[in-house]
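Notebook, bench 3.
Goal today: get a predicted structure for Putative ABC-type spermidine/putrescine transport system, ATPase component from Micromonospora lupini str. Lupac 08 so we can plan the truncation constructs. The sequence was checked against the plasmid map this morning, with no discrepancies at the termini. Length recorded as 370 residues. Pasting the sequence as submitted so the record is complete.
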Amino acid sequence: MSAFSQLRLDGVSRRFGGQDALTDLDLTIETGEFIALLGPSGCGKSTALNCLAGLLPLTRGSIWQDERRIDTLPPERRGFGMVFQSYALFPHLTVRANIAFGLRMRRLPKEETRRRTAEAVRLVRLEDHVDKLPGQLSGGQQQRVAIARAVVFEPSLVLMDEPLSNLDAKLRLEMRTEIRRLHQSLGLTTVYVTHDQEEALSLADRLVVLREGRVQQIGSPRELHTRPANWHVADFMGYRNLWRGRVARRDGSRATVESSGQRLLGEAVGDFADHADVVVAVRPEDIRVDGAGETSNALSATIEVVEYQGRELAAEARTDTGQSLHLRTEQRIAPGDQVKLAIDPQRLLVYPAGATAETDRLADTPAATR
Ligand SMILES: Nc1ncnc2c1ncn2[C@@H]1O[C@H](COP(=O)(O)OP(=O)(O)OP(=O)(O)O)[C@@H](O)[C@H]1O
């Protein structure tokens, strides 16, 4: 194991046959950071992680630990801990032996192996299960063993590939807190792959959003949440309302957009001019139901479907001009209600549309807007 102050990925690329799975990934990871690689299925997350781990050779680019080039080293010489979705435990070894395995392979003195294993067992709270075999453990406990095994030799970097995806919803939340706690108490540097934006937002210091093998945005959870760089990222970050429109007027950071027979005022993100085709993005929780008396972005609509979601209701509504939209509210609403909706212009983001073939797939868009 060797500690580092920075790990640098420089133009890391990987092709399979003629297909680009990952293109020009540039990323600098500071020691102690928790980085999430996020994106839809097939965007290249696991490819990036496997390139880092040394399980996949790069087609182009390089990886540096401070001044030392490491992409030419085999996995075992990189000294990274790995946690996979399938826990990959040895079924015939006890919990204790599974956790101690890496230390034995490294030929650590017996006493140190015993001490470090006990410490890792305590960290993941498995003291009562050390003599069991993996088959006698629940999914969450097995994943804890996998995590303990990855951190027991104090690796300079821990790589996790969708470690929680086999667990049920409640366990997933518990383990999420556990992973964050471990990260903080051990000061680990972690790269974590997930397709779950909520998981990534709650765990990571910085997120890297990938799409079709290319970085779309790198930023803090707050930046990703409030200011996605393009509408694809917005789509992925929970902006469920994506409407096509055309710019009537752009005035610095403000844009007035015609969309589905309505005039909407929003924040311009990115490069576009008057009359450009754009995509408007709004989160369901940013559509207010108490819009009566609003002067901008007021929409008359009828509530069509309501889902109970604890303190809030999730609803689908249709505006008088035929636009369907998703909203969330704590107010009591029911199907058939006529409502006045409003959207704060700062929460309505306007993006350049890009290629027509991509915006064609946007739902909820009446043909009239084209
Ligand atoms: N061994 C391989 N041979 C050929 N193509 C591959 C191989 N591994 C991955 N790919 C392709 O590379 C692209 C990226 O795959 P990757 O597994 O990195 O995506 P991912 O974002 O991790 O997806 P998922 O969340 O579904 O695991 C995909 O198009 C995939 O089909």
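The pocket of adenosine-5'-triphosphate is lined by residues 16, 21, 39, 41-47, 195 (CB under 6 Å). Confidence is low (pLDDT under 50) at residues 363-370.
Flagging this for group meeting.
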